[in-house]
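Example 3.2
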Amino acid sequence: MIRAEGIEKRFGGRAVLRGLSFAVSPGEVMVVTGANGSGKTTLLRLVAGLTAPTRGTLTVEVDRSRLGYLGHEPLLYRELTALENLDLFGRLYRVPERRERIGMLLERFAIWDARSERVSSFSRGMVQRLALCRALLHEPELLVLDEPFTALDEGGAELLDAELLSLARTATLVVSTHDLDRITPLATSRLALA
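Structure, written as tokens:
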């Protein structure tokens, strides 16, 4: 599903990724590790198609409409409610039976009771839960998650653990995290960046 051959990413004169090669087959869970500043976020942005490599080839064989992405920014409209945000993204992705899917995700991530509140009133952990709902709304084949446990309390992290376990059976996952104990049991491959 993903094949990288000698990819490099430069920002001006600074090389963030150098000569990186890897492959991820459908259904695999690849965990990306490394210190802060090692290029994890840059790599995930490349995989998600948000930027292009400076050199090398990167092939991601999935229709962009079947890709889910969660980065450091939640990509939510703060002045809309949780329900309005998910309804908007559901219409953009043409999610069949979107209202049922939205309700299920809001309940699963324990934010149903806050569905009519503006995102600007949410705690950082609630924003992260809603951003996860957004990324999962259209049932992506490829899910790219950059530090998905950020700001989640233990209850939220356990909800995400269960969701990732379920997704590992049906989707391809590329996940960067410092919380390796949570994701390592699901990993089929690991990419360590220096």
